[in-house]
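Figure 6 in text form: structure in, sequence out.
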């Protein structure tokens, strides 16, 4: 997924499930900075709290998008039609009062 980004991001924010030194090195090699906290069993890793703090906004957005049955179950056969459903659900979420 990192290879398909249109531009190199400034930060790559991920949760503890992606906490591996190999993944962090891959992010550094592409020119971005990782904001991935260490797992409990690993040693401390530099992870700025201010960059990681807003990750919940993305998680909350996906939770709201998955309220749409078509997004949660991925009924669409092609990636293009699935992306269209995600766009419609995101637009509806954005204009919802």
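Output sequence:
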């Amino acid at each position: 997924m990192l290879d398909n980004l249109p531009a190199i991001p400034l930060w790559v924010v991920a949760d503890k499930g992606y906490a591996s030194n190999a993944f962090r090195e891959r992010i550094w090699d592409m020119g971005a900075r990782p904001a991935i906290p260490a797992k409990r069993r690993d040693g401390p890793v530099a992870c700025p709290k201010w960059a990681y703090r807003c990750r919940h906004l993305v998680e909350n957005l996906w939770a709201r998008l998955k309220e749409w049955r078509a997004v949660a179950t991925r009924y669409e056969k092609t990636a293009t039609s699935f992306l269209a459903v995600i766009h419609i659900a995101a637009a509806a979420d954005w204009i919802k009062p």
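Caption detail: The chain has two domains: 2-52, 55-95.
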